[in-house]
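Progress against Task 2.4 (sequence-to-structure conversion) is shown through the following example record, which the project officer requested during the mid-term review.
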Amino acid sequence: MKNKWIKILIVSVLWIGFSSPPAEGESVDTWKLALLPTTLADFGHLTLSDVADKALTSSELLKQYGRTRLERAGSDGVQVSEILMALGRAGVPPSRIHLLSDSTRKVMPSPQTAVVTVVREAIIRKVAELNQFDPASISLEFTQIPGDLPKRENFSKVSVQPLIPLFHIEFLNERDQSVASATFEGKLSLRATVLAAKAPLMTGEYVTAENFSEEVRELSEVGGLVRSASELREGRWQLKQGLESGSILKRQDLQKLSQLQVGSMVTVIKKDPRFQVQTLGRIKEVMDNGASVLVENLDSKKEIVGKPISANEVEVNY
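Structure tokens generated for the chain above:
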């Protein structure tokens, strides 16, 4: 009997030791939310992560809802109640939030917020111009903002040099003279139409628009995309590297083969598992937009349809 009570006592001690009570004012079903008094973020693109004090806010709340947009945020600040309503629209019951900040105040923009807004808009315009995208399809989240930015009244425009993920900014006066410079770091995202491989494709394979489907994707890279099947409808294209099914086609994946012309002299190649025969030929007709050609064997004078495999070679089967 004595041993039984000793076992019960040990279990009770272990249970107490490993079951720490929830913090005061917080249950196991609540998330702590502490808000910063001011933020450097652009108030037109404000998210919960921008306004939350990350040292005091529950990490799980930030992980799941940190990108929640605060759509009603304005340049004069955002009410705490509006932040809670935004979380509610995102699916967080108000009862789950344990607010550590004054519920009657506003989160205010920093005096440098206007500068950050100008810089973000200039970067998006520059990236859109370089890659021929609609600026409205691009968003930018800064991961590092310099602390020594000039005041908004001290410059009239900015010059952007995108070195993604870095963006070098020159702040210019009305005479285009530099008054300050800074380097921002950020993550670009883009919603755009791209070409995705319908099936696996091998290195060296000849491809046409029929090998790809146009899809709208969320992207983190904006450069070098083939954005329309119409870009593949002219000329002959060959893959420089293989693609898996669903992979996005980029310009660096392709090489355009020179278009053979009627009258061009070519090497006619007949491949066989046991041997390979080569002879000279002349192009008589270009068919299927260059996908095949009618070639005359200069020795036998016979004509046969073949497939161009380079700028001066045609493979035939006969």
